[in-house]
Amino acid sequence: MLKDIKSIFLLIILTLLTYIMIFHWAINTNESNNRITDVGRLMPTKIHKIIKGNEEKSIVDTVAEARRDNLKVSIAGKRHSQGGHTYYPDGIMLDMTTYDEVLNVDTVHQTVHVQSGATWDDIQKAINPLGLSVKVMQSQNIFTVGGSLSVNVHGRDIRNGSLIETVNWFRLLTPDGEIIKVSREENAEYFPLVIGGYGLFGVILDVELKLTNDELYALETEEMTYDKYEEYFRKNVQGNDNVKMHLGRLSTAPETFLKDMYVTNYVLQKDQEEYSDLNQLKEDKLTFLTKFLLGLSRDFEWGKNVFWGMQKSFFQKQDGKLVTRNNAMRSESDFLEYEAKNDTDILQEYFIPVDEYEEYIDELREFLSEQDLNLINITVRYVSHNEEAVLSYAKEDMFALVLLINQGKSEEEIKKTGNTIRGMIDISLQHEGSYYLPYYEYPTVEQMKEAYPNTDEFFDMKKQLDPEERFMNLFYERYGQ
Fold first, then answer.
1. Pair 86, 77: CB distance under 8 Å
2. How far from each other are the two terminal CA atoms of the chain, in whole angstroms?
3. SS3 of residue 313 by DSSP
4. Contact at 8 Å (CB) between 371 and 379?
5. pLDDT in tens, 450-476
6. Which of 44, 143, 229, 389 is in Cβ range 3.0-4.6 Å of 196 for a Cys bridge?
7. What does the alpha-carbon distance between residue 315 and residue 250 come to, in Å, rounded to a whole number?
8. Average of per-residue pLDDT values in the chain
C-alpha cells in the first residue's frame, strides 16, 4: 500500500514538473531578418548576413568580400560563447559548422587532422574504432574544434591541461586573405594569440591535434565537505598517477550551500580485458531527467535540495562502473539547451589556486548569502599550470569552478546579476585567481587586466596583425578598443 502511495505521489510530481518544463520551453527567440544571438540570449544583434563556410574557397571569398565592401567579419561555431564573441552589428557572420570533415587520422603518430567546424563528436566517431582518444576537450562533445581552440578549453583530464598543449599546428586565413600554417616554429607569433584569441586574428581552417590511447577506467565517487577537498585532491588525485580524469560537484542546495561536495575519479585499470566489450560509443541518456531536475532547481529552493540529493545518489551508484575514456568524454549535452521568454541560463567560471580553495569558498559563501542569485549548479575541475596562450587563465595549478546561473533578461535583472558577478570576480582576484572570458560582458575592463596581465599585449598584437580590424566581435569592442 505504502509503495502504491509513493508511486502515485511521484507520478503527480512528475506531471507537475512536466508542465513546468513545457512552460519554460516556450521559445521566444527570433533569428529572422538576420537578428541573431548566442546561447545566452542576452545580446541579440542585427547583422549584415550569415555565410556558411561550406568549403575553403567560400571562406576565402567571404573574407575578400568583407575587405572589398569594408565589412567586419565574425566567426561562429555552436555559439556557446555568451558575450557576443561570434557576431558584430552589420557584419558578416561566418558560420563554420558545415566545414566539418575529419581529414586524416594517423595511428602511428597518434594525430588527427580536422576541419575547424567539426565537432568533438565527429572526431570521436572517427578515432574510436582505432582505439584512440582526444587528450583535451570540454565535458560535452557538441562543440566545434575551432570554437574550442578559440577559447582554449580544458576538461576532465587532469594529466593534460589546456587544449593548446595538444595542438601541433593549424592553418589560418589571415585578415589580408593569405593562408598560413601556424605552429610553435612556423609563423609562431600567431600560435599563442589565435588559441584563446576569440576569432580576432583570422579564420582557423584546419588543425592537427595530438591523440592518446583510448583506455578503460573505473569510476570512484566519494563524498566530503569542502574543507577536506584540497588535501584529498593533492593526496588521492594529483598524487595518484592512475587517476586520469576527475571532477567534483559543490552543493548549491540551501541546506548544504557551498559546504557539501562529492567527487568522481576515473581510475586507469591494470586489466584492460573488458575494453573491447565496452568501447562502443554511447549516446546521451537521462537527458530528460537532467532537464527536469534543472527545471526544479531554477524555480524552487526545495528543488535545489532534490536535485543535489539525486545527483549524489546517481553518481554514488556509478561507483565501480567501468567506462572507456571516449565514453567518459561523452557527457549529456541536450540539457544545455534552455530557452524561455523571460529568463536564461548563463555560465561563469572562476580559476582559483589549489591552496586557496577553502578560504575562497568561505568568502564566496558569505558573499552569496547576501545576494539574490539563482545559482543552480557548480562543477569543480582541475587545470594545470600553462601560460603558453597570451590570454592564459592557468597562471598556476588551478581549480576551475563552473557556475550555472539562471537570471532574468530584463535590464534590471541584468544589472543585478552583473553586480553580483563583479563581486565574485573581485573575490577570485583577491585569491590570486582568474575568470574565464567566453561569457557575458559583466566584468570591467580593469578586472580583465588584473585577471589577464597580458591583456594590453594581446590587443596591441590584434591591432598590429589586423590593422583594419577586419575580424570583429562585441567582446573586442567592449574590452579591446
1. yes
2. 69
3. helix
4. no
5. 999 999 999 999 999 999 999 999 999
6. 389
7. 13
8. 91
The 10s digit of each residue's pLDDT in 217-248 is 999 999 999 999 999 999 999 999 999 999 99
pLDDT at 21: 47
305 contacts 258 by C-beta, under 8 angstroms: no
d(CA 138, CA 140): 5
Q: Is 76 in contact with 116 (CB distance < 8 Å)?
A: no
Domain 102-213+455-479 fold is 3.30.465
pTM: 0.91
The proportion of the chain whose per-residue pLDDT surpasses 90, expressed as a percent, equals 80
The answer on pLDDT for 28 being more than 60 is no
User: Is the Cβ–Cβ distance between 392 and 196 less than 8 Å?
Assistant: yes
Domain boundaries, the chain: 102-213+455-479, 216-447
326 and 133 in contact (C-beta within 8 Å)? yes
| CA triple 57-466-54, angle to 5 deg | 20
216-447 — its CATH code? 3.30.70.2520
Q: Which residues pair with 381 in a beta bridge?
A: 400
Say if residues 198 and 150 touch (Cβ distance below 8 Å): yes
Q: Is the separation of the CB atoms in 351 and 435 below 8 Å?
A: yes
Cell of 454: 597580458
Q: How far, CA to CA in Å, does 240 sit from each of 230, 232, 315, 477?
A: 14, 11, 21, 45
Which parts of 37-83 are beta strand (E)?
45-46, 49-52, 73-76
Q: What are phi and psi of 275, to 5 degrees?
A: -55, -45
**What pLDDT, on the 0 to 100 scale, is given for residue 10?**
54
| Cell matching residue 83 | 558575450
The Cα 440–Cα 443 span in angstroms is 8
Mean pLDDT of the 169-185 span: 98
What are the cell numbers at 199?
A: 576569432
Q: Packing angle between helix 2-24 and helix 287-299, nearest 10 degrees?
A: 80
Q: Is 400 helix (H, G, I), strand (E, B) or coil?
A: strand
**Residue 286, pLDDT score:** 62
Q: Report whether pLDDT(9) > 60.
A: no
CB 94 within 8 A of CB 73: yes
Question: Which pLDDT band, with edges at 50, 70 and 90, does 25 fall under?
Answer: very low
